Amino acid sequence: MIETFGIKLICSKNSCLSPVVCLVVSVSCRLCLVVSCRLCLSPVCLLSSVCLLLSVCLLSSVCLLSSVSVPSTGEVVFCSASTVLKYTQDDLSQRGVFGVLLCTNFRVSFVSDEAPTEEMGQLFKNKLYGENDIPLSCVDNIYGGSEDKRKLITGGLVKNKYPSKMIIHCKDLRVFQFSLSFSKEEDAKKIFQGIVHHCLEPKSLRCLFAFSYCENTSYPEAQRKKQTVMFDSVEDWTQDMKRTKGNCRVVSENSNFELSPKLPQYFIVPKNVSDEDLTKYQGKGLPMWCWSHHSGCALFKTASIPLVQEDNVPQTYMEKMLTAVAHNHLYSVKTEDLSDTLPTVQDILLSYNRFKQFFLIDNTTEFWMSDMKWFSSLDNCGWLDIIRQCLQKAVEVVESLEKENTNVLIMEEGGSDLCCVVSSLVQLMLDPYYRTLLGFQSLVQKEWVAGGHAFLDRSNHLHLKDKVESQSPVFLLFLECVWQLQQQHGPAFQFSETYLTVLSDSIHVPVFTTFLFNNDGHRDSLLRAESPHTQRSPLNCPTVWDWSVQFDCKAQDLFTNPLYTEKPKQDTSVRKSYRPRHLRQLSLPSSAFKTPPKKGFFKDEADNLKKILGVKRLSRWMLSPSSDSPQTSSSVREFYEAWQTKPLDYHGLLLPCLDGPSIRVWMQRYLRWIHDVQILGGGPVAMLSKVSEILGEVQELQRQLDRHGCTLTSNHKGARPRAKTAAAVIAARSSVRLSSSFPFVTSRNWSFKPAIPTSLLQSLMVTGMAGNLADREDDGGPESLV
Q1: Residue 36 and residue 128: Cα distance in Å, rounded?
Q2: What is the dihedral of CA 411, 415, 416, 420, to 10 degrees?
Q3: What is the CA angle 201-204-207, rounded to 5?
Q4: Which domain of life is it from (predicted)?
């Protein structure tokens, strides 16, 4: 071994007695290059050859990765293959573009041989990965096969000949198809095996790209200080409790995670919960404060305790905790075990897996062939019904807080999945602060990150076999519910639909600490292991709320809803109640408003508690039996109808409509990559563009009034248009022809289909064009078209 200028050279002799020198250079960007060459043993020749090799290697790597747009330091190229054909999605003609396929420690990337086009003028470009990049954690399934068949790849070595075609399904619903037939056999085998290994094989958390990224990225502490409340200090929890005028206390006994790693470092409990009670059952059964109503009642959540019939200790402890919650306000409490009334995490996963198959389209012909069964397929998968159930459960809790002024305690096994969904939705419906962008981010931090949602296990970034059953898109389910609320009450939300879509994509970008750990204790223990001699890790890892890591300021302008109206200062009653009807094309078939078949929130509470706890003296904390009569099954409907009769206040209580047509498919997220369903110059973006123009005119009128010393009436103060969002949309429209999936898709070389899609043509041919098409609406007729 020879070491010169810090470069280690490993020399060995071959049969010809000329050494083979392997040069391993780790440059500042941590791009590892391995080069082999034959050199003589002359020191001068050796040194000059090393310099020449280093220059060539650095030049070639820079040229290659400049096209890939390396997000930052820390990315390492594992393998690559040239002359790879990337198929287009237009049809079955197998057309595409040639380029280089790479696999790094961050992503799978395709670099086209054709010159890139700047269609959007860099308006909405992600800094970390591009249009043809797939983060490794975003890979859902890989298929291999020939032109006419495919087989699911489950990992491991390719024993036989490598497949000539590779299909990658992504968790953000993109589909990539590559042909390896034109590449060198050895390169094709290496790139296929490398992608399968790094995307599907089990790995340790330390292998995720976030650690390499953070170790080599300068991220000043001042840059990390955002306005989003992180709920990692006593002050954050105290401030939130004071804001809602709560009547509880902040505890810090778990500041070093001595009580339980699943509990946050700081949290809030009822005042009657003693310090001794905190140490029992590792936090299970402990009522943790979520939010306080202005009337004095509050929402609590807890992880249920497995109760043993012969053991009265857990029953006595649970009785004491319920008593503490009841003492919070009016000596009343309602409990709800979400494990009994909502689907399990396994049911959520199965339903979503069936649902997403409708949008993982290899070609447009396949999409149109599935169009005839659109409604029935949506109904059978059950995903939209799970969304409805979660929204309805949240409405039931809201009714208890708003109408009955009752403390509510929701529970489930673990207390960090459906409890997070329901508690977050309740606060969105009741508290306008959480409908602002910063408020929503703070809500996610409080209920999901600090609340101990197992993001790592639920996303299964590490592809561990023993965590397969734990995988479930619970956080995505919450975002779906938020999107339903946003679509029904658009002006009430400061953040836009694009913001929710980008947030759902960011779950699978292995850079942000927000989605990398199961809880705060898990994060703390891992960082201590990385740096055992310090209290905090030296790694400066960003959170997902540091949007500048992914987007520039112009792109972030699109996160704001231009229709959002800030809270008026007075006289809100003069505003008219306008509730738009909901589109039917992307909804379930129309059906009556009905509650889930299982007993819901308003079941016989006293009998339920007696059965669970085995005690009778709890009845003095419960509501009278008349409140829990069988007629309460329709109380949610009555509660919603009574709310509808009141003047609409976007800064007050919001309730979702749960009728069949009101629960819709999130079009931007699920259909944005399917070219044939895009509407060029139309769709939601056309309405947004026109509204942006009107808002711009209103702004100009306001400026003119201000110059003349006049102002708008007090009823409209605060309802200023979102100038930055409006300007961004107008600027984009002036440069390109926008599609209905803006800003993710703009004008392209679209394939134009007949006015009547293939599925309907085939149906008409079979039926002889008999019958009225309107009568076939629910069977996949014209209204089934997107």
Answers
A1: 31
A2: 20
A3: 90
A4: Eukaryota
Residue 488 identity (one-letter amino acid): Q
φ and ψ of 52, to 5 deg: -65, -45
3-state secondary structure of 108: strand
Cβ proximity of 474 and 348 under 8 Å: yes
Which residues is 101 bridged to in the sheet?
A: 81, 110
> How confident is the model over 257-275, as a mean pLDDT?
93
E strands present in 113-174: 133-135, 139-145, 150-153, 165-170
Q: Which amino acid is at 715?
A: N
Q: What is the pTM of this model?
A: 0.82
Confidence of residue 546 (pLDDT cuts 50, 70, 90): very high
- Mark 595-613 as b/e (b = at least 16 C-beta within 10 Å): beeeebbbbbbbebbeebb
**pLDDT greater than 70 at residue 586:** no
Residue with tokens 């019958």: 771
According to the model, what pLDDT value does residue 312 have? 74
> In terms of pLDDT, which residue wins out, 142 or 579?
142
Cα distances (angstroms) measured from residue 304 to each of 307, 319, 419, 512, 675: 9, 12, 11, 30, 47
Residue 64 near residue 111, CB atoms below 8 Å: yes
> Tokens in use for 530?
């990385």
Q: What are phi and psi of 267, to 5 degrees?
A: -155, 175
Q: Which of 34-38, 78-82, 418-422 has the lowest mean pLDDT?
A: 34-38
Distance from chain centroid for Cα 144: 28
- Spell out the alpha helix ranges (H) of 736-777: 758-767
Q: Per the structure block, which two tokens stand in for 349?
A: 């996963």
* pLDDT at 530 (0 to 100): 61
Q: Which of 166-170, 581-585, 778-782 has the lowest mean pLDDT?
A: 581-585
Per-residue confidence (pLDDT) for residue 217, from 0 to 100: 78
Strand pairing category for 32-38 and 19-26? antiparallel
Pairing of strands 248-251, 267-270: antiparallel
Angle, helices 383-402/635-644, rounded to nearest 10 degrees: 70
Strands 407-412 and 298-303: parallel
Class (C level, CATH) for 77-201: mainly beta
Three-class secondary structure of residue 11 per DSSP: strand
Question: Residues of CATH 2.30.29.30 domain(s) within the chain?
Answer: 77-201
Peptide bond into 743 cis (omega under 30): yes
CA 716 centroid distance within chain: 35
Residue 778 vs residues 272, 372, 584, 588, 773: alpha-carbon distances, Å = 56, 9, 11, 9, 10
Report residue 695's pLDDT band, with 50, 70 and 90 as the boundaries.
confident
Are 451 and 262 contacting, i.e. CB atoms less than 8 angstroms apart?
no
* Largest distance between two CA atoms of the chain: 98
Residue with tokens 């904390």: 621
Segment 228-231 long-range contacts (CB within 8 Å, at least 24 positions apart): 228/438, 228/441, 228/442, 228/445, 228/543, 228/545, 229/438, 229/442, 229/445, 229/446, 230/442, 230/445, 230/543, 231/264, 231/266, 231/442, 231/445, 231/446, 231/449, 231/450
3-state SS, residue 100: strand
Task: Calculate the dihedral angle through the C-alpha atoms of 727, 500, 683, 644, rounding to the nearest 10 degrees.
Answer: -100
Please check whether residue 515 is in contact with residue 544, taking contact to mean a CB–CB distance below 8 angstroms: yes
What is the residue type of 62?
V
User: For all residues of the chain together, what is the average pLDDT?
Assistant: 77
